[in-house]
């Protein structure tokens, strides 16, 4: 049964472009609605003890001091944000919901540097800080476009002779450093349409002793909107934690006790095993959990029913490149020609790709007007698709090749192993210039790099609905998530593991450099490579190649880039 959350972000802050920014420069709020408790020493999380203990209000603090102190205190989650609540009136402290959303400040932005707009009676204050990321109440991280600001307003009054906030926006506003200290990235687990693999749905939640309960409630609620129709949950609609255990996940001696209420109709043994698989794989990333004890309607679900489902697709073959006018494979520090590769000197070839099982190669020819395919046991390459200007192809685990027209009308092309092509609608691409297509190795998601004149480049990640045989439906999900929106230019992108991409990206006026970007998460620069033109990531997120405009090939190892000597190649791509 496929289930998704409602479309759109549940974020109560108001976003405005810098070009229409208010005259006030200020701050935003940090939100979340999922229950998150204080960080305890026995939470099993080594990072929990690094949480900041903020200062509370001081006697005689001005309204501005109170507002700034309240925002700073958002970095202290202890005792249900008790320090932050101490800046609020008694009534507001009971109503304020710190976890409705989280707004993340850019690096180098300090709360004290933000201007606070104040009315003459000092009873209303406004602040509108720059924001690089927003986390909604379900833990989904969305990066924001350059220049995004989050606006919030406060009402204040005196209580017992001291200024306190009587009305505050729900949520939190914190720095990137604080965000990655008190929040942690977790993955809810769902299945591919054929139940062959588990697919991670990346979320961000507080490091907390109640995190297992938060994860379970979100897992029961279903996948994020961008995965709509692309993944399957084995958990029936309406399933809830059992009232008999106070609706929480308890942990005893490393065993997480999960009690679900009765289900009608009762699940079969196979269905029970799949439910157990999702829950166990989701929860056992928490250090304090080594096993789970699951019951449904009071009946224990034994571990023997749990299937062995892979959590990632293995990539065994080396990357493919174009070198010396042939399809070639990179092995260590050398490049070797594919045995049956034709000479491509006159073909105007580019953008090779290879299937996960090494049985198929594809590439563009005639300056992108033809998509060619070479089977590993064939002598000649054959054309399988023609177009005006096709973009870099990608082969999924079903050996379907994906491409599309650069001048896009909201359509992608999928060519099956049998050579039959189909059109897959992607309406949000209509009128944009498509640059690159990259299918995730589990086949559930597709990353689409596109641009439009006068706008920052954009990477949309969206789910691919399929039937049980793996054939794509006639459309992708209608709710893509934008990845790496903070950048102005994105030259190239590639999957680098199940939850992240690598990209050659840059801010406005900067030169493109390699970054790792979470599908729902912040970006991390991976050193510097001069004049990089293409990037390719392996399944583990560490095997990364970059080619320069001059044909130089760089490999990322031990957090450093190494140039492969005496090698010239272009357009690298790992299998899948």
From TrEMBL:
Transmembrane segments: none annotated. Residues 1-23 form the signal peptide. Keywords: Signal. Residues 212-305 form the GerMN domain. InterPro entries: GerMN, LpqB_C, LpqB_N. It comes from the Bacteria. PROSITE patterns: PROKAR_LIPOPROTEIN. Residues 32-66 are annotated as: Disordered. This is GerMN domain-containing protein. The lineage of its organism: Bacteria, Bacillati, Actinomycetota, Actinomycetes, Micrococcales.
